[in-house]
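Deviations from the work plan: none for this task. Representative record:
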Amino acid sequence: MASQEIDFLSEKQSSASKKAKIIHFLKLGSIIVLIAYCLLTAAIFSYWFYLNSQGKKTEQEIASKKQRIESLSEVETTQIFLKQRLAALEKFFTNQNKTDLPLILSFLDYIKGDARLKQINLTKEGEITISGEADNSLILTGLLKKLEDYDQFKELFSQVTLLSADKQKTGNYLFSISLIVEEN
Amino acid sequence: MLNFNLRENKAFILPAFIFLMVFLVTVTFLKPKLSQIFIIRQEINSEKKQLASLTQKLASLDGLAQVELNEKTTLVLNALPAEKDVAKNLFIIKQLVQESDLGLNNVTIGDVGDISTASAQAKIEKGEVLPAMIFSVSVSGQMSKIGDFISKINSTLPVMKVNQIYLSNKKGDIPEVTLDINSYFLPIPKTLGKIDQAVAIINSKEEETFEKLKEFKVLDLQDSFYYSEGEKENPFVY
């Protein structure tokens, strides 16, 4: 009868071999991790150094540009000054009504006849209010007739309104007329 | 009680030491460095933006010619003085009245306030866009000449505008007219050129305004009382 052998050592050996393998992997793994970690750390430090030098370089460039800009401060001040004034003047000219006062004066001089003009009131919206005095109703009617017959009337005004015509005790008439200047 | 057999666990010492080192180095050095990197990157980004705007500003400034700017500024200052200059305005009005062949009866200056000071308060009247001094000028002459005077006022620097006209023409008399003339000024801006601010660009409408100003007449004041160093003429004498 063949005797059966039980090898108790084999299990022990296999367990030891497994343990050795694990230890080997652990060692190897930790060395790889250490190398990778060292590389990562070196990369991070290098990047930090790079960023620092980059920052310093940018700061130097900024300082240099600022210095150059300061040396040109006179030019800049003049430009700002010019801009401020031109912007204000542009607004001023835009805001102006396009009333041709000399033309309107010559027109009023023509139509007034014997009436006496006392005040010409100008508004921003292009409205002109004239007030005056006529010795009698004929003079006032004559003024209104001339106003109506004036050739260039439609080119000058879009609307004319007789605001008031008050007869005084003396027989004189105080009148006021509103003229809306035609916008071109 | 924990029984640690050094000889048995010798093999685990190195990996344990490595992981401990990694942990310690990460916590003490690497983490703060990473935070620093994050902050530095943000700083660099904002600095780069600042640098770009400064570079642009510098290029704009380099493109501006000082001589040309000074010439433009002289004209613009003639158009819109920085201060209330009563004497200069009086001289100009008087000159224009003479040129229009009118008789100057009277000049009344409105509420002047502080005269000829940079700090002169710039009060803007309702409906106006610029501060102004008001001159009530009484002249006599034919209507056509008064019209000519108004045209001259409208086309001479500094910028002026006739606001009101009061007429007093008795029968047969030479018309007497009182004109309310606004003469405009504008104090110097309070803030001039912050370093990080972009250069003020003059747009096309403002260029057009400048071209328009070129068409205005500038009176030569060199020989007037205004510039004479000796005995000054009284501007209030007509």
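Residues 6 and 12 of chain A are 13 Å apart (CA to CA).
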